[in-house]
């Protein structure tokens, strides 16, 4: 059985300003750095065999805070990137609504707008993730630092397979939210929990930020 802890990156400067990121690279905010530090401390009590991260800076920096507490090097893996959103990237939701009014009735991550990442690519990414993790770490415990949109898609893929895009994705993943999934060697999943953020509770002060994921 392969155990994967998915972690969304800490709050980025774009998150704090309501800017859509996709593949655009924005650094962590001051709050995001603190969130990443606290997530790293939470993993000090978890035995990991490997740490993977999206190659985008906000994920790599978050992963580095986890690696501080493990005798492991972060492995950059572009397949863990956020969904590519092409012409939507760098816009606020208000700007997007003006430039692409049709999105008011469409799911942002699967809109099909030219220049955004196709469903086929996302499905292939999910399938490759399952294949690689179960083959490379058949009995391992892995941390995978990724992004809210992609984590939600992967969880839906684990439930619905290649029809995931037809479903309403119910998962809300906050900054540094931790999700635990087990995969059998045949690729069947058990979702233990999603979006755990108790590591952000510092003396009753929750260091939460927006759950807007993209």
UniProtKB/TrEMBL annotation:
Keyword hit for Hydrolase: yes
A GO molecular function held by the record: fructose-2,6-bisphosphate 2-phosphatase activity
Keywords in alphabetical order: Hydrolase, Membrane, Transmembrane, Transmembrane helix
SUPFAM superfamilies in alphabetical order: Phosphoglycerate mutase-like (SSF53254)
UniProt cross-references to InterPro entries, sorted A to Z: His_Pase_superF_clade-1, His_PPase_superfam, Phosphoglycerate_Mutase
Transmembrane segments: 142-160
Active site, renumbered: 9 (tele-phosphohistidine intermediate), 82 (proton donor/acceptor)
Name of this protein: Histidine phosphatase family protein
Naturally occurring in which organism (per UniProt): Salipaludibacillus agaradhaerens (Bacillus agaradhaerens)
């Amino acid at each position: 059985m392969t155990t994967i802890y998915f972690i969304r990156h800490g709050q980025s400067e774009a998150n704090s300003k309501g800017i859509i990121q996709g593949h655009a690279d924005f650094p962590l905010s001051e709050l995001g750095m603190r969130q990443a530090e606290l997530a790293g401390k939470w993993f000090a009590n978890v035995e990991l065999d490997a740490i993977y991260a999206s190659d985008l800076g906000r994920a790599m920096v978050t992963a580095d805070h986890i690696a501080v507490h493990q005798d492991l090097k972060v492995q950059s893996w572009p397949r863990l990137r956020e969904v590519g959103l092409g012409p939507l990237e760098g816009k606020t939701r208000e700007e997007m609504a003006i430039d692409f009014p049709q999105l008011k009735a469409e799911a942002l991550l699967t809109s099909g707008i030219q220049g955004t990442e196709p469903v086929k690519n996302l499905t292939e990414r999910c399938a490759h993730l399952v294949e690689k993790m179960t083959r490379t770490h058949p009995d391992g415990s892995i941390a995978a630092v990724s992004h809210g949109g992609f984590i939600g898609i992967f969880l839906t893929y684990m439930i619905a397979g290649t029809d995931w895009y037809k479903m309403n994705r119910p998962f809300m993943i906050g900054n540094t939210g931790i999700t635990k999934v087990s995969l059998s060697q045949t690729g069947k999943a058990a979702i233990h929990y999603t979006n755990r953020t108790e590591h952000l509770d510092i003396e009753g002060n929750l260091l939460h930020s927006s759950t807007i994921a993209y």
